[in-house]
Design a protein that fits this description.
CATH class: Alpha Beta
Order of helices and strands: EHEHHHEHEHEEHEH
Number of strands: 7
CATH architecture: 3-Layer(aba) Sandwich
Number of helices: 8
Radius of gyration: 17 Å
Distance between the termini: 10 Å
Shape: globular
Oligomer: single chain
Strand order of the largest sheet: 2-3-1-4-7
Mean pLDDT: 93
Largest sheet: 5 strands, parallel
Low-confidence stretches: none
Bound molecules: adenosine monophosphate
Length: 216
């Protein structure tokens, strides 16, 4: 079962992708997480993409296409995968299509988690993350028990560099210009499933599992 999660930054794609990954025992492949790991490790790749990510722009297609190609050639994707944050441009979508065709696979579900711009700006601006365990909180909808501290590690939560207000606006604009057309791309291929991402996390999860449930 090969799935791609579509939608603006902050729509909850990552949270839902984790549920799918656990439920169907397939890897959750988040290109954003992969790039952040490279940045934390200060690898050559990490240093190269750092400025672009902090500014809210997209990393070059050619680089992303290569990263995903390498990742999708690993044996753990045999039963399927859930891609989160990829493809983000038409060129990435087309190259993914070609790669999967070459591997004798295809995208079975493109799940579009739809959330309006004003909700996204508010969500991302109030998102905080634990620098130690990576757990994500939201000061409004999912606050930590103690003010500003991770429930598990008890260390002060931080704001992701690209969740700062100016960058959030840019990320949304980049999404609308570059990624929104990819949704149409999958609609035309009859694999697009749209879910209202403003609903409660559990509700979104139920709807999603309902859509994917037939494959069991
Ligand atoms: P995310 O956590 O998915 O919002 O990704 C964080 C940042 O990583 C994005 O704002 C981009 O700068 C970069 N990034 C992640 N995935 C991609 C992609 N498929 N294409 C280009 N840049 C990406």
């Amino acid at each position: 079962m090969n799935i791609v999660m579509m939608g603006p930054p902050g729509a909850g794609k990552g949270t839902q992708a984790k549920y799918i990954s656990e439920r169907f025992v397939i890897p959750h492949i988040s290109t954003g997480d992969m790039l952040r790991e490279e940045m934390s490790a200060q690898s050559d790749l990490g240093k190269k993409v750092e400025e672009v990510i902090k500014s809210g722009k997209l990393v070059d297609d050619s680089l992303m296409i290569e990263i995903v190609k390498v990742r999708l050639s690993r044996p753990d994707v045999e039963k399927g995968f859930v891609l989160d944050g990829y493809p983000r441009t038409l060129s990435q979508a087309e190259s993914l299509n070609e790669l999967l065709r070459f591997l004798g696979k295809d995208v079975k579900y493109a799940v579009y988690v739809e959330v309006p711009k004003d909700v996204i700006i508010e969500r991302l601006s109030s998102r905080r993350v634990c620098p130690k365990c990576g757990h994500i909180y939201n000061l409004i909808s999912n606050p930590p028990k103690a003010d500003g501290l991770c429930d598990v590690c008890h260390v002060p939560l931080v704001t992701r560099e690209d969740d700062k207000p100016d960058v959030v606006k840019r990320r949304y604009d980049v999404y609308y210009e570059m990624t929104f057309p990819v949704i149409e791309y999958y609609r035309k291929r009859n694999v697009l499933f749209t879910i209202d991402g403003t609903l409660a996390v559990e509700k979104v999860k139920d709807m999603l599992l309902n859509i994917l449930g037939d494959d069991n």
